[in-house]
Amino acid sequence: MNVAVTGASGGLGRRIAELLIETMDPTQLLLLSRTPDTLAGFEKRGASVRKASFKNPTGLKEVLAGVDRLLMISSGDVDKRLDLQRQTVALAQQVGVQHIIYTSMAQPSADNPSFVIPDHAGTEQAIRESGMEWTFLRNNVYAEGLVIAGTQAVASGTLLTNAGDGGTAYVTRNDCARAAAAVVTTDGHEHEAYDITGPEALTQAELAALLSEVTDKPVALEQLDDDAYFDRLYDAGIPQETADLMASFGEATRKGFLKKVSSDLSDLTGRPATTVREVLERNRERLRGE
Ligand SMILES: NC(=O)c1ccc[n+]([C@@H]2O[C@H](COP(=O)([O-])OP(=O)(O)OC[C@H]3O[C@@H](n4cnc5c(N)ncnc54)[C@H](OP(=O)(O)O)[C@@H]3O)[C@@H](O)[C@H]2O)c1
After folding, report:
1. Is the CB of 38 under 6 A from ligand 1?
2. What pLDDT sits at residue 134?
3. Are 138 and 104 in contact (CB under 8 A)?
4. How do residues 182-221 score in pLDDT, each as one tens digit?
5. CATH no. for residue 205?
6. Domain containing 85: what range?
7. pLDDT mean across residues, the chain
8. Are 135 and 213 in the same domain?
9. pTM of whole model > 0.85?
10. Residue 104's closest CA among 91, 92, 119?
11. Exposure check for the chain: N or C terminus, fewer CB within 10 A?
């Protein structure tokens, strides 16, 4: 079976490519990226690497011909993302892709206020309506992102949030990659939407306490409303779109959209999901600013 992966040079895509090249016949693996040169190492190991972008439908159609199973990694470029991803789904269907696997987001329902949700929900809908077999990997928030936010919180002694008492089932990108590789290389995942989560849902108060414990430095939690949280981020130099996005995630967390903990990840990979504590402990020195 011929497998293709879009976005193969991204943080998630590259990890998936590393897992796939170890577990499947590399001659049946096609890695697609806007920057194929960065994937030359995989080509040396027997995989095919081609230039492709959701923005170039003609090129996409050519490279997708003959692909049976497509892992479509959601684009990190949010400009016109939904239209481009819908177009890509239609092209995949036209050239005969049988099964499409899409990296979505936790709880992509209409009432979820996170700004990224309409793109994921719309892409899922297009895939469902395409007639291809489908699998959705609804990844929760990456735990690795906590290292950047945590470093700032430890340095200032304060973790800012608008998430109230809401929990987040943070999951590592590596675990997301393992789940994706498992779905790509085994059968029986048709018409499944998997909740790819960490092993527990942490509130921001629990996160502040954990940061404090791991770094041995005080971290207080400051709860803000959505507007005040946006203002503090913006005043600290974070671009408006990013501050808006972060506030929308906080609101989604507060409203319970990120708290679901699932065993889907461990069921797929056969190993327990990584904890936030493990991620923070691995990055203790960085968190301490050393
Ligand atoms: N769950 C979370 O917390 C979380 C956090 C951040 C992002 N995400 C989402 O998950 C995706 C994968 O995460 P990541 O860590 O790998 O992100 P990343 O390292 O920022 O990578 C960005 C991804 O977007 C792809 N991309 C950008 N423009 C594209 C285009 N025109 N056509 C096709 N692909 C395009 C890139 O592919 P190439 O560069 O190889 O072309 C790459 O795979 C992200 O793209 C984003 O949608 C989730």
Report:
1. no
2. 98
3. yes
4. 999 999 999 999 999 999 999 999 999 999 999 999 999 9
5. 3.90.25.10
6. 3-139
7. 98
8. no
9. yes
10. 119
11. C
Same domain, 154 and 99: no
CA dist., res. 22 & res. 160, Å (int) = 41
Mutate to test the pocket of ligand 1, among 73, 142, 249 (most ligand atoms within 8 A of CB): 73
Kindly state the average pLDDT of the residues 6-16: 98
* Same-domain pairing of 11 and 122: yes
- One domain, residues 127 and 152: no
Residue 123's CB: how many other CB atoms inside 10 A? 26
163 and 115 share one domain: no
Cβ of 74 closer than 6 Å to ligand 1, yes or no, is yes
Task: With beta carbons less than 8 A apart as the criterion, state whether 87 and 20 touch.
Answer: no
Write the CB contacts of 109 (distance below 8 Å, at least 6 apart in sequence).
117, 121, 257
- 256: Cβ below 6 Å to ligand 1? no
- 8 Cβ below 6 A of ligand 1: yes
Our answer on whether the CB atom of 168 is closer than 6 Å to any ligand 1 atom is: no
Q: What is the CATH classification number for the domain harbouring 8?
A: 3.40.50.720
Q: Please indicate, yes or no, whether residues 74 and 104 belong to a single structural domain of this protein.
A: yes
Closest atom, ligand 1, to C-alpha of 176? 1
- Predicted confidence band at 95 (pLDDT cuts at 50, 70, 90)? very high
Ligand 1 atom closest to the CA of 76, numbered from 1 = 45
What percent of the chain has a predicted confidence (pLDDT) above 70?
100
